[in-house]
Recover the amino acids of this structure.
């Protein structure tokens, strides 16, 4: 596992949830990734996105799509 450090405060990030789903941009499918957070300042990041899983009807955990 890669060690990740918070860019805001320098603390080591901890995993909050594995396997979150994300829709992004103009993609009609979604991606799976892992949600990490900073225990000191609360900063969150989603990392390790997989290949697109095509399913336009899927309701992801995070939707950053441009419609």
């Amino acid at each position: 596992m890669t060690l990740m450090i918070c860019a805001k405060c320098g603390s080591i990030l901890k995993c909050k949830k594995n396997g979150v789903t994300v829709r992004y941009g103009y993609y009609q499918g979604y991606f799976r990734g892992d949600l990490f957070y900073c225990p000191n300042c609360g900063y969150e990041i989603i990392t390790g996105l997989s290949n697109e899983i095509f399913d336009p009807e899927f309701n992801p955990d995070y939707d950053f799509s441009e419609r």
Remarks:
- The chain has a mean pLDDT of 94.
- The radius of gyration is 13 Å.
